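Handout, section 3.2

Students often ask what a structure token actually looks like in practice. Rather than define it abstractly, here is a full record for Dihydroorotate dehydrogenase electron transfer subunit. The first block is the sequence as you would receive it.
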Amino acid sequence: MLSMIEYNERVSDDIYLMELRSERVAQMARPGQFVHVLVDSEGYILRRPFSICDTDGKTIKILYRVKGVGTRIMSRMIPASSMDIIGPLGRGFDEMDGSVAIVGGGIGLAPLVYLANTIKRGSMFLGFNGKPFGIDLIRNPGIDIRVATMDGSSGYRGNVIELFEAALNDERYSCVYACGPKAMIKEVKRLCNEYGMVGEASFEERMGCALGSCMVCSIPLKDKSGPKYARVCKDGPVFNLSEVIFGRV
């Protein structure tokens, strides 16, 4: 499906925000789902998955980091040009009752923006190496945003797990949503176990087809008969943290 680029702007050193006009995708999307993007360049036949960062019912936003040739080509695309996308794909976040915490690390913020803009209220803990980005995309006044930076340039000096764990000394949450580096998500699972919270996380894996056929993006989950492998593209990218086996991820 060809979608027109409304804008494509740099929001930080290597972070870009792209808005695409696609009413069908925008109206069908749920927080945590993604689109599979085809970069229109000779020699690049595989699509790339990007979380739906937000939607207004007519357009979708993609927050992405330039880290290779494909995303570098994307960063140079101009408004009014078109991009081929498939979506929305995957299993998004479940709606959970009770007090909500959202924990994100770096570009893991991308799927959490859409989530934060759709829930009534909650606390959001965000970690960055340096200057924060994308926080202005969170337009929900019911979200209490707290920031940690490794260089101390904004908010708490340290990592986001330290910030979240310190908050748990005085605050209680019934459910946690997370996205970020796997080491961070593993620590979120530990805290969920220690404090009796239900946790869900969005995982990032390399994908081939994004339709569940090639099994490239599989991760191990607990099963009665032993580990079973689930497809991030089809069964995820969101999984209940109680099911994920981190020693094998």
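Discussion prompt for tutorial groups: The two ends are 33 Å apart (CA to CA). How would you have guessed this from the sequence alone?
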